[in-house]
Design goal:
By secondary structure, this protein is of the alpha/beta class. The chain contains 14 helices and 22 strands. Helix content is 40%, strand content 22%. The chain has a seven-stranded mixed β-sheet with strand order 12-13-14-11-10-16-17, with helices on both faces. α3 packs across α4 and α9 packs across α10. The N and C termini lie far apart (63 Å). The structure holds nicotinamide-adenine-dinucleotide. The site of nicotinamide-adenine-dinucleotide (NAD) has 32 residues, from α7 and α8.
Length: 466
């Protein structure tokens, strides 16, 4: 009998289903199937890989209600946010499809006429693009459609086979994604889901895969990098963040407060690019804090299946004690608790939206990834002070500056080592722009044209006519 993975509903704590876990032998068997199928998939004309992807796109829209309900049941994501996530994926598919041919196209970089040397034919140099082969896609639970889709959609379009391990906290959604891709016409051996937690992920890394594309925490990302180092395969890591935002003295305060409250609390703060720490210039601090708290008070917490709910439960029970510990540490070191700070007295894994002020960088809430509905707001005296605090982190995913002056914001953002910079916005991802981290936030990029070509390797052809 295989081990079973229990899928629990975070809002009710009820068991939804038990899924058989893939052990090492099952993972090896799945790898072998993908290895046999991938060359045939890569040999198809691009149009034959695009058409099932477009069918997948249409099915996402057609089935959004069922898919959103499933996602909400296993992650506690409010249903309106689950729908938004699923309905944003077609736009990403459109981007990948639009650019697939251009990225794949061979490029003739040099052409020399014949007979330059006696008896020699013309020389051509061509850069051709080839898929990596069979790749592992090890995914996080917080946005399974986004973080999975950023990998498996371009990887499949470029001709790779994909072994997709959804998170153990979004495994039903992972199964639904696989079923939908197969129904759309992606061959069952070209895209294979692998079910289980860390041990299954580790078993996947033991296979002779040609690349690994991981989304998850810095701690796990490090383990992945160590496991794949001797293999010398492409290892792409999209990891966590401690994303800062700064509200300058000249900012439109109401806009900043509303935007940053959403950036901090959307999906219960469980976004890689959630706003995790806020610095506010002293001139606008009181006005900002009042508007921010007012916005947070307006967030409806409750049953995630209710379309009006903005804050559901957190998706994993152990996170509740991480949040409680960060709050306790901050308060013990002198922070003021403006709202929340404790579990909500109802079934399910609910933590009240929490705002802390009088915070500083000795506190874990300003140093370690929170990944939940807790935010620290710190008063600063100058742009230089804000910059120094924003720079004080090993992470580098995103940073935001709110100011009416573009040059002022750009000058601050330019000095921060992050993959993404936001002026008067935050917590935003675009298929047209690269998504990447610096430092502990990861290696490599998804999205944009770079996020398509990362699933290819170039081959140089030296072609001399006889
Ligand atoms: P996690 O690191 O706990 O797990 C991620 C995946 O790794 C899961 O599928 C898990 O089963 C697998 N895994 C665990 N141990 C493994 C091992 N030893 N070998 C192989 N696989 C293993 O992360 P999570 O809780 O699922 O996700 C939350 C984290 O992901 C946060 O830090 C968040 O910031 C980050 N994240 C980053 C991005 C981004 O784009 N940068 C996007 C979403 C989430």
């Amino acid at each position: 009998m295989p081990d079973l993975l229990s899928i629990i509903n975070p809002a009710t704590e009820a068991l939804i289903q038990e899924l058989p876990v893939d052990d090492r032998a099952a993972v090896a068997d799945k790898y072998a199937r993908a290895w046999r199928a991938q060359p045939g998939w890569a040999a198809l004309p691009l149009a034959d890989r695009i058409s099932p992807m477009l069918r997948f796109r249409d099915l996402l829209i057609e089935r959004v209600e069922t898919l959103a309900a499933l996602l909400t049941s296993e992650t506690g994501k409010p249903i309106a946010q689950a729908r938004s996530e699923i309905l944003a994926l077609p736009g990403r598919i459109d981007f990948f499809v639009e650019h697939a041919a251009g990225v794949l196209a061979p490029e003739r970089v040099y052409a020399e006429p014949g007979l330059v040397l006696p008896g020699m034919g013309a020389l051509e140099e061509v850069v051709a693009q080839e898929p990596l082969g069979v790749i592992a896609n090890i995914s996080a639970w917080n946005y399974p459609y986004f973080v999975g889709g950023n990998v498996f959609i371009p990887a499949l379009l470029m001709g790779n086979g994909v072994l997709y391990k959804p998170s153990e906290f979004a495994a039903l959604t992972g199964g639904a994604i696989a079923a939908l891709l197969h129904e759309s016409g992606i061959p069952e051996d070209v895209f294979i889901s692998v079910i289980g937690a860390g041990l299954t992920g580790a078993a996947l890394l033991e296979q002779p895969i040609d690349g690994v594309f991981f989304t998850g925490s810095y701690a796990t990302g490090q383990k992945i990098a160590i496991a794949t180092a001797p293999k010398l395969i492409l290892t792409q890591l999209e990891l966590g963040g401690k994303d800062p935002a700064y509200v300058c003295a000249d900012a439109k305060v109401a806009v900043a407060a509303a935007g940053l409250a959403d950036g901090a609390f959307y999906n219960n703060g469980q976004s890689c690019c959630a706003v995790e720490r806020i610095y506010v210039h002293t001139d606008v601090y009181d006005e900002f804090l009042e508007a921010f708290l007012q916005t947070v008070e307006g967030f409806k917490l409750g049953d995630p299946t209710d379309a009006n709910t903005y804050l559901g439960p957190v998706s994993r029970r152990p996170q509740l004690s991480v949040l409680a510990d960060q709050v306790a540490d901050a308060v013990a070191k002198g922070a003021t608790l403006r709202c929340g700070g404790q579990l909500v007295d109802r079934p399910g894994w609910y933590f009240a939206p929490t705002v802390l002020t009088e915070v500083n960088h000795t506190m874990t809430v300003m140093q370690e990834e929170t990944f939940g509905p807790v935010i620290g707001i710190q008063r600063v005296a100058s742009d230089a002070d804000a910059l120094a605090l924003m720079q004080d982190t090993p992470y580098g995913l995103t940073a935001a500056v709110y100011s009416t002056e573009r040059q002022r914001a750009v000058e601050i953002l330019r000095q921060l080592k992050t993959g993404t910079a936001y002026w008067n916005c935050c917590d935003r991802v675009s298929p047209r722009l690269p998504w990447s981290g610096r430092g502990h936030s990861g290696l490599g990029a998804t999205l944009s044209r770079a996020g398509i070509s990362t699933f290819l390797q170039p081959r140089g052809w030296h072609l001399r006519a006889p």
